[in-house]
Amino acid sequence: MSDALSAWTGFTQKNALARFLDINLRGAGQVIFQNNPLTGLFFLAAIIWGAIASGQIDIAIGAVVALVVATVTAMLLNVDQTSLEQGMFGFNGVLVGVAVPTLLADGAAMWFILLVGAAVSTVVMLAVSKIMKTWEAPALTFPFVLTSWFLVLGAYSFGHLPIASMGPAALPHALDTAGAESALNVTELFLAWLKGPAQVFLINNPVSGVLVLVGLLVSSAWAAGLAAVGAAVALAVSLALGASLAAVTAGLYGFSPVLTAVGLGCVFYAPSPRVLVFALLGTVFTVLVQGAMNAGVAPLGIPTFTAPFVFVTWLFLLPKADLKPHPHGLMQGGLFKKSP
Amino acid sequence: MSDALSAWTGFTQKNALARFLDINLRGAGQVIFQNNPLTGLFFLAAIIWGAIASGQIDIAIGAVVALVVATVTAMLLNVDQTSLEQGMFGFNGVLVGVAVPTLLADGAAMWFILLVGAAVSTVVMLAVSKIMKTWEAPALTFPFVLTSWFLVLGAYSFGHLPIASMGPAALPHALDTAGAESALNVTELFLAWLKGPAQVFLINNPVSGVLVLVGLLVSSAWAAGLAAVGAAVALAVSLALGASLAAVTAGLYGFSPVLTAVGLGCVFYAPSPRVLVFALLGTVFTVLVQGAMNAGVAPLGIPTFTAPFVFVTWLFLLPKADLKPHPHGLMQGGLFKKSP
Amino acid sequence: MSDALSAWTGFTQKNALARFLDINLRGAGQVIFQNNPLTGLFFLAAIIWGAIASGQIDIAIGAVVALVVATVTAMLLNVDQTSLEQGMFGFNGVLVGVAVPTLLADGAAMWFILLVGAAVSTVVMLAVSKIMKTWEAPALTFPFVLTSWFLVLGAYSFGHLPIASMGPAALPHALDTAGAESALNVTELFLAWLKGPAQVFLINNPVSGVLVLVGLLVSSAWAAGLAAVGAAVALAVSLALGASLAAVTAGLYGFSPVLTAVGLGCVFYAPSPRVLVFALLGTVFTVLVQGAMNAGVAPLGIPTFTAPFVFVTWLFLLPKADLKPHPHGLMQGGLFKKSP
After folding, report:
1. Fewest CB atoms within 10 Å of the CB: A263, B136, B340, C231?
2. Pseudo-torsion of CA A208, A210, A216, A221, nearest 10°?
3. Chains touching chain A, criterion 3+ CB pairs below 8 Å
4. Closest CA of chain C from B250, distance in Å
5. Under DSSP, is residue C158 helix (H, G, I), strand (E, B) or coil?
6. Maximum Cα interatomic distance, chain C, rounded to a whole number of Å
7. CA B99, CA B97: separation in Å to the nearest integer?
8. How many CB atoms lie under 10 A from the CB of residue A181?
9. Does the beta-carbon distance from A268 to B180 stay under 8 Å?
10. Which residues of B touch C242 (CB under 8 A)?
């Protein structure tokens, strides 16, 4: 595998088209932090399989088109070359390209906002990266989340953007699910578990989940293992707390914890017993935040996307290297002085 | 014109009252980024004309009073003298002073919160400026947006602050406007276009729109041109996407794109073909964000104010000079170490 | 009193258990900025008194358990030792420990999220501190607010987390309270005033309010005086604006202004006539923001917690030492250049 990868990398140095393909594949791979074109190929396969299986080929087209548009936009903006070649400007685009056709109905207006959104996702990536670098932290998938929220929420204001599967907007209300989880048998649990990794790409399909896990495995055993464990922890915690069975079995409590587990457990910290306990706390908290945000976005009739992962992972990465808060004492220099 | 301006500037050096007037007029001008007292005079005229035409003289009084209170607050806080003299502490105040009497009914409680809000707008301007300067970016009109949201949202909690024109709070729901835009004739389109610049000041009046454009023209042909084009782009995109005709014809899809077009096209970047394409992308995206935020604030029963402009312009300004995101790799120094 | 405190401090140097107790008591005291174990003891007494008086002993247990868990988590993460010993990692935990059992019904799931939340509150404290230190500002109680929002909002998604007293979610609607405030007699006003300081700890009990004020007095006369004045200002402004009498008499308009008054008036700025006027403006604005946020969180069916205090105090602290905004002029270096 790694021989083939070396050969491929050598080839991309000579062939501009291969190099462009490589950048885009790495962009897909970076959705779960992997700078690896083969991983990206598996991830795209997971999207395409899910799109075909559900009869929504526009999702597969949207993903590829948005990935390319986001990457080309980055080239036009003369971004950092190393970051570009690692696929750092593709992963938000590909997710925008999946989200828009999944939630909104096919049509000219849908493709128009998909193209605008894919280009804008690169601008937002630059903006969020600039802010987060202040604290040595990554943008994560927040550019995708923010851009997609703006795109799909507009469907409630624009008559030519009919909604396919989203909403309706509703006030949150208490759920009575006591005892319902006993209804799940082992097969259902297994399929729900596989759908966690698949839903990172908004795909509700267990085969896609296998493709995602295999795609991780060809790049990093730690990443694949932590993704699998993260999905299992999410399944256990969400069932124990009595989450909606429909949401749990569709993998909708799994995708953010998968990302948190991989990100905290082996990407931004090197795996160790201490780090794994820390990542476990973050993964469990991500399940709680997923439940909270499901209620939080309900009055707007939009999905959370990967925001629970983003917020929790930021909170768990930011403390690094600065463990001293501002004391509860005087600010330096008193109230506004006369300017000199 | 520029001779008269020079004479006026010379006069303000000798006369303290003229100087104070000059600062306040520049404050009004800075609503659309113009450090020019004549522009400010036109903008105030636009507000006053609109207020009189709709029989709401309290809006004109509120604008002037809040402008002065915000400026005086800045003086009392010993802010940077150059920024003060450029009117940087007036533009949020004047907008607060228009927003409160437009949305809430006249009365002692309304004037109380208007005065508090005008003073606070200067504090918020300082706070937001401090944060945004970390990334060499301006506060834009976010101090106005944030302060006014806090002021008018409170009307739902305080019985002595009756609402004049705002809300009611409602969940967003899909709109069916297909085909309705064909109903607009050329005159209606022309008036809707003029109301875009007017609604920057929350004024629903085409004559005020002319005054705003002329006010820009006396200061900068680029600014006037980009405002006109921005309003036209917003009209075209919002109609093409099937936005509410009532909102479009009132200029409510135009004011934020006007500000984005001017800000990105000629204020914060120097106009060039490359910059204009970038500004166009930002202007189109502002229309999408306006639609999204209209749905987003609906459950709270408040307007978006200029938040779509602020968020998009920040996203399009922040990338400057730092085009390298944090990689998806290890943080420096591992997990929390023992403090030394 | 100060002799006893010195003796205690000396004892904590020799006895590890006493030292741990001291850290936790200071953690409770830091809820209102006091690095003082006796103050913390009074604050815990206020919580316990209120819990027993309302027959909810789980609130008292939750407060103590969460305080200890948050402190121990800080120790395990090797945080800055001085900050730890000042109780900077306890105050958010103790508030999480009060909030969860107050709003959610007793049960295994409630205790599970309380423990997770208490540990996470320390991580969030580190994260928020890191961000706010960029501008030399403190985290305030935002870690408590954010963590608790995530915990209790999830109750709408998790069937095993029944709600005890929160919500229901509702759209904001205009209030008609004109004239109702005349119904309050002097005793009712007095009790409402005392409940302001008590509600800092989510306790609806006037005796607890006395304990809080006395706890402040043993540490700082300024803090006690400003808390008392802040509660009185909040009472006057909220009644004058026609706020809900039920909310006013429960102290729900008082707790955030109390914190703002103490924080701005004597903790982060040294008291002076100039500072006190500034703190008064902040305190009055906090009442307006409390009203706004009550409406703002209504569609989610959650409380504001101390967010009004946090947002206003940040806005009033941030301007310090940087009173020059970015001008409305060109960004440095034009649009994205070719990277070198």
Report:
1. B340
2. 170
3. B, C
4. 25
5. strand
6. 74
7. 6
8. 18
9. no
10. 109, 158-161
Alpha carbon distance B94, B56 (integer Å) = 16
Contact at 8 Å (CB) between C172 and C299?
yes
The mean pLDDT of A170-184, rounded to a whole number, is: 75
Residue of A nearest to C320 (CA): A336
Q: Do the beta carbons of residue C11 and residue C183 sit within 8 Å? A: no
The rounded distance, in Å, linking the Cα atoms of A326 and A332 is 11
- Identify the CA nearest to B50 among candidates B231, B42, C197: B42
The answer to whether B177 and B243 are in contact (CB under 8 A) is yes
Reported ipTM: 0.93
Residue type, C61: I
Query: What is the full per-residue pLDDT of chain C (340 aa) written as tens digits?
Result: 577 888 888 898 889 999 999 999 999 999 999 999 999 999 999 999 999 999 999 999 999 999 999 999 999 998 999 999 999 999 999 999 999 999 999 999 999 999 999 999 999 999 999 999 999 899 999 999 999 999 999 999 999 999 999 989 999 998 765 556 567 899 999 999 999 999 999 999 999 999 999 999 999 999 999 999 999 999 999 999 999 999 999 999 999 999 999 999 999 999 999 999 999 999 999 999 999 999 999 999 999 999 999 999 999 999 875 556 666 666 665 565 554 4
What count of other Cβ atoms lies within 10 Å of the Cβ of residue C68? 20
Judge whether residue B82 has pLDDT over 50: yes
Euclidean distance between CA atoms B34 and A171, whole angstroms: 43
- Phi and psi for C303 in degrees, rounded to 5? -85, 165
Please name the amino acid found at residue B331.
M
Minimal Cα distance from C326: which residue of B? B138
Q: Are A157 and B293 in contact (CB under 8 A)?
A: no
What own/partner pairs with CB < 8 Å and gap ≥ 24 does A7-15 have? Answer: A8/A37
CA distances to A257, C23, C161 from C9, in Å:
44, 11, 42
Q: Is the dihedral of CA C155, C161, C165, C169 positive or negative?
A: positive
CB A114 within 8 A of CB A136: no
Distance from CA of residue B133 to its chain's centroid?
19
CA distances from A137 to A220, A253, A274, C134 (A): 22, 25, 20, 14
Q: In the prediction, which pLDDT does A340 show?
A: 41
Domains of chain C: 10-166 (1.10.3430.10), 182-319 (1.10.3430.10)
Strands (E) located in C163-295:
none
Q: Do A333 and C320 touch (CB under 8 A)?
A: yes
- Quick one: closest CA in A to C136, which residue? A326
CB of C10 within 8 Å of a chain A CB? The answer is no
